C-alpha cells in the first residue's frame, strides 16, 4: 500500500482505538506526504544526493515511511550504488536514531569470525579468545544492525541469524546463557536474493524475514540526469573550483558506470588530482582512457548500433593499467584496483553477449543457449552488466 502511495499503515489487530484516532487526526491535519522536511534534513546531514530522478525521490519517501515502522529492511542494489548511506538514512529516520547503528560486512569475514562478530564469545571459547567479547547484537541493542553483503554469509550463519531474528535470542560462542536483543536488521546485497534462493545459495525463510520492507536502489546508468549534480557535489566535497568541459560531461553522461556512484566519485577525484594546478577546465584527457573508448550496450539498442573496440585491445589496455598500478611507487587504494577488476568483468561479459547476439541475429533464446545460460540470465546481463 505504501508503494502505491498510502501515507501510513497500521498492523492488526486494531485493539488500541486511540492509536487509530491519533493517526487519522494527524493525516487530516497534515494531508501532504509526511516527513518532507525531515527527509530534506537527513539528506543534507548524510550527504545524500536526491537529484532530478523521480525514482530516487520515490525511494527516499518510501524509505522514510518504512523507517518509522519497527520492521526489518532489505536493500538491494549494485556495488557502489549507496546501500550503506541508505541504511544510515533509515536508521536516522527511525525512532531508534539515538541508539547505536552498527555495520558489519558479511563478505569481509570468515565464517568463524563473522559468528563471533555477530554473537560475541566467551573467554577460552576458541584459540585466541583471551577475553570475553560482546557481539554486535548486544552492542546494537535497541538500535540498528546493518548486515552488508548478507548473501556472503554461510549456510550455518544464516540458520543462526534466522533463529535470532525470529526469537530475539542468541548465545555467545562458548556460553550457555541465553541473551535477548531488540535490534532492527537492515540487510543489503548486490546479489538478487530471490535468484540466490532459486539457486540454493540463500535460505528462503531468512529472505522472508529480511524483506518485510524491501528497497531497490536504481543503478546510476538509469538516472543519468543526476550525474551533473553528483559531479558538482563531489567537486564541492574536495573543495575544488575546477569544472568539466561540455565534452567531458557528455562522456560522463554516456558512460555505463558499472561501479555506480562510488566509481563516479573516484573518477572525479582522479581528474582533480591530475588537473589541479594545471587547468581550470577539465577536458576528456583527464578522464580514464576506458571512458573514452568503452561503448554502452543498452537493452533497447538495435543490434546494428553496437560498436566498440575489440575485446583483445581492451584487455591489453586494462592489463597495462593494472601493471602501472602494480609498479607505481605511490600509494594505491585497493578499492581502485578491485573496481578495475569489476570493470574487466563487465567489459568481458558485454563482449561475449554482443558476440552471441550478433551470431544469432539478435535471437535472445538462441544466444542464451549458445552461452549455456538461461534467457533470464541473458536479460540480466543486458540490463545489469552494461
What does this 3D model show about the protein?
The chain is an alpha/beta fold and 386 residues long. It is built from 17 helices and eleven strands. It has helices at residues 17-29, 36-46, 54-67, 83-93, 111-119, 136-139, 155-167, 193-198, 204-210, 227-237, 246-254, 260-275, 289-293, 311-327, 334-359, 364-370, 375-384, and strands spanning 73-76, 101-105, 120-121, 133-134, 144-148, 169-170, 179-180, 184-189, 213-216, 243-244, 281-282. Strands 2-5-8-1-9 form a five-stranded parallel beta sheet. It has a two-stranded antiparallel ribbon with strand order 3-4. A two-stranded antiparallel sheet has the order 6-7. The radius of gyration is 24 Å and the shape is globular. The two termini are 33 Å apart.
Biggest sheet architecture: 5 strands, parallel
Average pLDDT works out at 83
SS field, number of helical segments: 17
Secondary structure tally: strands: 11
The gyration radius over C-alpha positions equals: 24 Å
Give the termini separation: 33 Å
What sequence of helices (H) and strands (E) makes up the elements? HHHEHEHEEHEHEEEHHEHEHHEHHHHH
